[in-house]
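User: Structure tokens for this complex, please. No commentary.
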Amino acid sequence: MNLQEIVNSLSLEVQTPELDLTREVTGGYVSDLLSDVIGNTSQGNLWITLQIHLNIVAVASLKGLSGIILVNNRKPDADTLTRAVAENIPVMTCALPTFELVGRLYALGLRCR
Amino acid sequence: MNNIEEGVFFLTGKDFTNAGAASSSLKGVLEKRGVQQDIIRRTAIAAFEAEMNVIIYAVAGMMKYRITETEISVTIQDMGQGIPNIELAMTEGYSTAPDYIREMGFGSGMGLPNIKKSTDRFVINSVVGEGTTLEFLIRLTNADKEQA
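Assistant:
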């Protein structure tokens, strides 16, 4: 599945309009613990979290994740976005709480893999 | 062996702005060398966890790496508070991180266990009040993990 299709289907707000979203999303992962994400995600996974500080970009970049969705209307720190653009990690936001968002991603066919 | 590559990165405690930069650079070195994906993944996990420990707990430190034809060895040495009980620190879920660190999603007590799981050899030495030295090795050949 393509990140652009997911963004369109769920009306996610893209916080990094500079970045191309036509990239393959291999699966999804939810966690707010960085070690959990470091240890358990695969390349191309889409990461759902409520963490908004810039270290999430370092984690996503290191693991080659396809993007980060911030839930519950949380807005990323300014330096998070600067880093995200520099590292080519798309950051999206949405008003939904995690449970609702993940339910919709699952319905779209996304799995944890 | 003549194809040996070495390097060092310096780490500054509490510098969350550049946290992860050393691990990311090391990953870049391995990618450029054409190292197998799974080995890069394991090295990146271990290096990141070790780097974050220095950022979170120590005043300063350094990450040295050496890549040969057969293995990647990484040493992370810091000037920090040291670990009083290494066995306890190795327990999954055990952490001494302050609340603000935990709120950032660090300090979940998974760091050292993650390093151990990702590497073929892992040695940690610490002196309370002086610092901690952590060494890990990942084999490039015969990917079977050594039994601890």
